[in-house]
Amino acid sequence: MRNRIIHTISFAVSLCSILLFISCASSHIDPLPSWNEGRAKQAILQFVRDTTDSSSPKFVRPEQRIAAFDQDGTTWVEQPIYTQVVFALDQVKTAAEKDPKLAGAEPFKTVLLGDREAIAKLTLPDLEKILMVTHTGMTVEQFQATAKDWLAAAKHSRFNRPYTELVYQPMLEVMNLLRANGYKTYFVTGGGQDFVRAYSEKVYGIPVNQVVGSAVETKYGYAPDGKGILTKEPKVMLIDDKTGKPEGIHMVIGQRPIVAFGNSDGDQQMLEYTEGGDGPRMMLLVHHDDAVREYAYGPESKIGTFSDALMAEGKQRGWVVVSMKDDWKRIFAFDK
Amino acid sequence: MRNRIIHTISFAVSLCSILLFISCASSHIDPLPSWNEGRAKQAILQFVRDTTDSSSPKFVRPEQRIAAFDQDGTTWVEQPIYTQVVFALDQVKTAAEKDPKLAGAEPFKTVLLGDREAIAKLTLPDLEKILMVTHTGMTVEQFQATAKDWLAAAKHSRFNRPYTELVYQPMLEVMNLLRANGYKTYFVTGGGQDFVRAYSEKVYGIPVNQVVGSAVETKYGYAPDGKGILTKEPKVMLIDDKTGKPEGIHMVIGQRPIVAFGNSDGDQQMLEYTEGGDGPRMMLLVHHDDAVREYAYGPESKIGTFSDALMAEGKQRGWVVVSMKDDWKRIFAFDK
Prior knowledge:
Two copies of one chain form a homodimer.
Chain A: H1 2-26, H2 39-52, E1 66-69, H3 83-98, H4 108-113, H5 116-120, H6 124-135, H7 140-153, H8 169-180, E2 184-192, H9 193-197, H10 200-204, E3 211-222, E4 228-238, H11 244-252, E5 259-262, H12 268-275, E6 282-287, H13 308-317, E7 320-323, H14 324-327
């Protein structure tokens, strides 16, 4: 009997050794294979190691591990025009079918005529009118169903692929790495909260309750069958951009993130707010400098403006500036 | 060698059997020991079983397992006056020290004089003034620190215990049961979101990012040291009560809960909204009918009004009405 126990223990120890070996070997698999070696990649890996190693002075308790990601331009393509704006322009037709008066009124008339040059010249107030007409007056469920249908069919003008494929593979890897290390990943987007919720789980693994975004008010009421419903109202509740980002973070997350990724002036305050808390922090800016594989733009761009002032602030504060050209081995999952 | 392997396997199988036995035995431990046997307890246990058993037609995928809890009167004592209002009244003194003009102005003068009868007669607009003065003009962190300090010292007038001990033990058990079964538990409270966040994790195991509540706007700015801060502004963003509850749910959670617990007319729309989705749903109302151990109140109460209309709606729709007197074996953790 004693022998048997010894044998059993020895067998168990061997088994444990094998498992330990597999576990160690697997930890040598690069969690960021689409990143080139360099300062940005090292900064991310080091930060995750430091904040999750309980013997490190930089250890952060799991409930504080909150990472905030901007969406447009940080985790997917935002050029030459925000995806959601393309969606809104496409939805004008549907809106005009419901309300024929729209067809004769500007800016809807211009959109319906399909004159690209005239559409490109639409002003911000024009755009707001279009967003209100196409994003309100339906239940939240109806809106999301419409967004899902559109995303399943629409394709990007340059890449000729669904928008949901124009996702930055290196950023998906960062999200997965963070989640595997006990981080909660949130979107904090200037885009519409309900629009992003239509695909955030499927495309990024971010559940609907971890999406902070621009939002209109909703109104509670009853469907004809008596069921409680929420209708999207043409009244802005939150513009989740610039100073609105920390405000949205407080409303939905209720604590400062310790990691924040952005790519434009709209993310400045979110990064500052993230930096302003105690303990270890990591702030990163994605810089679009790869016209060949994606786009190159900066201070001059109306979409995703990355001003010289933001670049200077980032450098002065020690934020990580990610060069898409130099730091990313591949940009999309479909890149070779 | 062959024998040794057989011995090892047989030993391993025995070990597994023992572990399995322990596991099965532990599943016979009552997860709701503070509940008396009855319809309410059975309804909760049955619902959790049905929605988590993958072979049940009522199975619900984990990402849909969202449970919403009202706070005041549903998970802790709300009589004879909301805890947060007691806090606000106590904070008037601090506010008057900062701004001495307040001491001479109503309704602050009445509060500072401490005349209970006069305080009880304060109107809703008076109360709003008091809430604004005591809940805004500081950073979100300063406010939470103040709330935590107050909660650590303040005691309930009848029970002479900290408010954070006046928590309903049966509800803690339900929250734990749900979480152990893959549910995310949220507060959806008419109380202040930032106030409840000050203790939700410690007292209920609900993290700050799972608290929906009434909220004022916040304003982004900079502390003297240049750090980004958010200041609470005297402008209401959301009154998370009645129709505001589904609206707050949509803003923060982004999906319909499938379980909702309330105790008053303020929860009606939240329960209806929860009921309005597809698939299995469970709606419950806590009825305060135990004047001996807690309080008995209903349609006549200004705090936690439970109208006859709500009772009729609940019965007609098959909502579970929990009698504190009959369904709860004990109310507080300190009850014998």
